[in-house]
Amino acid sequence: MKKPTAEKKILTRHPLGKKGVSISREKYDLMAKAILAALRKKELTHTELFEQVNKSLTNKFTGNINWYGETVKLDLDARKIIERTASKPPVYRLRKA
Questions:
Q1: What are phi and psi of 35, to 5 degrees?
Q2: Considering the chain, what is the average pLDDT of its residues?
Q3: Is residue 18 a part of any domain in this protein?
Q4: What is the pLDDT of residue 96?
Q5: Strand partners, 84
Q6: Helix H segments across 16-57?
Q7: String of b and e for 59-71 (b: at least 16 CB within 10 Å)?
Q8: Reduced to 3 states, what is the DSSP secondary structure of residue 20?
């Protein structure tokens, strides 16, 4: 009998240095792709970003889209791939290279 292969995991980061969580690499990649695709078009508020992510991942993602989305969004911020502005309301955007 074949042993099931271990699911690949990624330990996420937090922009404030808090402890990250270990999640499926497959789910991380799918979520990161959806977030970055949404932000390529324009800067978005948190609500707008999650509306886009939910729309693009409905029926393609197993798990809580909002929880994984928040986790991956914080990780992308900590890795300096996206940034949150200081404006009111804050908006998210791709960080300039």
A1: -65, -45
A2: 93
A3: no
A4: 81
A5: 92
A6: 25-41, 46-57
A7: eebeeebeebbeb
A8: coil
* Cβ count near 52 (within 10 Å): 18
Distance of alpha carbon 43 from alpha carbon 83, whole angstroms: 10
pTM of the shown model: 0.90
CATH, residue 29: 1.10.10.10
pLDDT tens digits for range 28-52: 999 999 999 999 989 999 999 999 9
The residue behind tokens 């991380």 is 28
Torsion of CA 79, 88, 67, 38, to 10 degrees: -70
Please indicate, yes or no, if residue 68 is contained in any of the structural domains. yes
- Tell me the C-alpha distance between 69 and 2, whole Å: 33
Helix (H, G, I), strand (E, B) or coil at 70: helix
- If one counts the domains in the chain, the total is 1
